[in-house]
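Lab notebook: predicted structure, single chain.

Context: the supervisor wants predicted structures on file for every construct in the current expression panel, including those that have not yet been purified. This is the next one on the list. No modifications to the sequence; it matches the entry in the shared construct table.
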Amino acid sequence: MARLSFQVQHTDSTTSARAGVITTDHGQIETPIFMPVGTVGSVKAVAQQQLLNDVKAQIILGNTYHLYLRPGTDVLEQAGGLHRFNHWERPILTDSGGYQVFSLAGTRKIKEEGVTFQSHIDGSKHLFTPERVMDIQRSIGGDIIMAFDECPPGGSEYGYARKSMELTHRWLDRCVAQFNATPDKYGYTQNLFPIVQGATYKDLRKQSCEYIASKDAPGNAIGGLSVGEPEPVMYEICDWCCQLLPKDKPRYLMGVGTPWNILECIGMGVDMFDCVMPTRNGRNAMLFTTQGVINIDNKKWEYDFSPIDEELPCEMSRYYSKAYLRHLFKAGEILALTIASVHNLCFYLWLVGEARKHIIAGDYATWKNEMIIKLKTRL
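Prediction complete. Output recorded below exactly as produced.
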């Protein structure tokens, strides 16, 4: 058992992009990386074999809030942790549930002790404290677990953002204490990542980055973005944080985003990304392709028998035609959701893989700028 390690292998000459390797007890992760979101222990409409063989996923996410509610920690502990429960033998990251609690604005109450909230399933009341969240994530068994934070809404006033950040820091101290006081449950090392907050205020972000960096965690996350702020502001904040966070630790930008968001933020020095966008958009008939964005519902694809994306190294994307996938959506066939989700995830993993190649080749900036123009094209 060993603490997570990170090695920077290549850096781009004209941007802050870097290619590296994260090593965990469940295997290595080549960065930059996109992590499919498996909220309740599964990526929606996608089987684990498809994640391995088609998507080529190196790490997936689980969510503390959802897994706590169902199946519950008793089931997960009896199974031997999430890896054994869902038969995923590669690394897993667990989100603390802070964002999900944030989204329950109508029922939550935030206090120094923690957050009380009502279940979205049955309305039952629950309390998440930093200590409880650490214990739940120990039971889930992720290789990387996240500190419990408060995620302030976009556009928060300075006073609220400062108090929220300070609360997040105090909660972090409690997370670290509880994490250090409890052993790994399943015979491999878990790793705690703290989360930078501070809304859109540069001085708060600087203070938060410095506080988080002082914990000497194996990796650090940037939270509180993509919650309503304009895209240029998101980029500015991300750039601020990457300049301040340690260069020898992986940087994880939480919940972001579009393919072009990811490429821009890789250029700032981000190593890890997650987002529900590829699967959510896929289930709603929006496909990301190497040539641009497709709304497969459109009539223009009715007689297009060409592959969904013949340039993507994904069997489903090359095997099925645009016309057939459109037909499946129009017919309400469940297979449509799987094909579209697998395709979009394949695209995201291909994209970060190509970014890695161009970082190593030394032409990342040129490739990125050309690729973003193409990716934003509406076909």
